[in-house]
Write a structure and sequence with these properties.
By secondary structure, the protein is mainly β. It has a domain at about 25-75 and about 90-125: Immunoglobulin-like (Sandwich). It has two helices and seven strands, in the order H-H-E-E-E-E-E-E-E. A four-stranded antiparallel β-sheet has the order 1-2-7-6, with no helix packed on it. Strand 6 and strand 7 form a beta hairpin. It is extended.
Length: about 140
């Protein structure tokens, strides 16, 4: 008789792996593309991992200091005769939106796609933000 070593976390791992745990949240929201946002002296740059995505099906926009990237990944129809045990390859649409920490030139945004990585380059706005001081008026004095 073979002995099976006891693993106290095995059942916990299985609990979180099951699909029934989050049935309300669609799969596309659970599998958003990873994004890095950083700045250089002259630009704000966002990089997204989008392997296998057709660049023609990706939309990039910047409005009111919000970068929005959306698109779709090719839907594959389930082939008859294949008995899938698990399907984890992402398909369908995705969207990521992030508020930018500083103002950028919205009309000069550029996006490039190379080796599965989308790079969005946004030049910083020329005019720095100015601080406005407001004098407090006391009522009742």
């Amino acid at each position: 008789m073979a002995l099976i070593p006891w693993d106290p976390f095995r059942e916990t791992d299985r609990f979180f792996d099951d699909d029934w745990l989050f049935p309300i949240v669609p799969r596309s929201r659970l599998a958003e593309p990873a994004m890095d946002v950083y700045e250089t002296d002259k630009e704000v740059i966002a990089e997204l991992n989008l392997p296998g995505v057709d660049p023609d099906k990706v939309n990039v926009s910047v409005k009111d200091q919000v970068l929005r990237v959306s698109g779709s990944m090719e839907e594959k129809k389930e082939e008859k005769g294949k008995g899938y045990w698990k399907q984890e390859i992402r398909r369908g649409s995705f969207e990521r939106a992030v508020r930018l920490p500083i103002a950028v030139e919205e009309k000069k945004v550029e996006a490039t796609y190379e080796k599965g990585v989308l790079k969005v380059t946004m030049p910083k706005a020329a005019a720095p933000r100015t601080e406005t001081k407001v004098k407090v008026k006391a009522k009742g004095k």
